[in-house]
Amino acid sequence: MNYEKHIISKAKKLGVIRPRDVNAPRTVLLELVGKGMLERTGWGLYQLPSLEVSEHHSLVEVSVSIPHAVVSLLSALQFHGIGTQSPHQVWITIDVRARKPRLTYPPLHIMRASGAALSAGIEYHQIEGRRVAIYSLEKTIADCFKYRNKIGLDVALEALKEAWVGRRMNVDALWRYSEICRITNVIRPYVEAIQV
Questions:
Q1: Antiparallel, parallel or unpaired: β 108-113 and 122-127
Q2: What's the DSSP call for residue 23?
Q3: Helix pair angle (73-80, 137-146), 10° resolution
Q4: CA dist., res. 21 & res. 14, Å (int)
């Protein structure tokens, strides 16, 4: 089998690849890096040097390295184009029982959840040829209120107001996720205030 052609073809199709994506010996990947045909972007991550990356490239890298993670909170707000936050870490949510990821780059801020709080509101978006799990805008806003002591109430309020003014959220979905996150009583006065 011609590993080089296979690997380059996969890299063109998927953007960021792992050794298991190409089913080739790691030494072949390292040879391609040495020849300048691939570049290593992180632990076990490779891409073509000519790959045009989007502003959400770090989300792709995290998604490839940690497939069970969901992009959440500040990173999800940034993806949805809500608020003024520009996080220097990728915010993800993983299961409470999951091992701590070994990824060193991009830097991570890890939240943990279980049950419906983890699985509800996940949307899948195609970014650079990869499927990335990101919480919906309504679930993200509910999570912002849930974790208001970590990210700041001002961030949660800004997200709620901007989503409402821009007519970008479904209030019924927001109430559903607020119940799942157990913050209905916390968020109710703010939602009622913006609806006036």
A1: unpaired
A2: T
A3: 150
A4: 9
Given a cut of 50, the residues of the chain with pLDDT beneath it are 1
Structure tokens at 125: 């978006």
Contact 74, 59 (CB under 8 A): no
Query: Residue 45, SS3?
Result: strand
| 11 burial type by CB count under 10 A (0-12 exposed, 13-18 middle, 19+ buried) | buried
State the chain's mean pLDDT as an integer: 85
DSSP 8-state symbol, 27: H
Please state at what angle helix 184-195 crosses helix 171-180, rounded to 10 degrees: 160
Task: Please give the DSSP secondary-structure letter assigned to residue 101.
Answer: P
Q: Which helix (H) or strand (E) holds 22?
A: helix 19-22
C-beta atoms surrounding 111 within 10 Å: 20
pLDDT of residue 117: 92
Distant-in-sequence, close-in-space partners of 132: CB < 8 Å, separation ≥ 6? 56, 59, 60, 63, 71, 124, 125, 126
pLDDT at 52: 67
Is the peptide bond prior to 101 cis by the omega test (within 30 degrees of 0)?
no
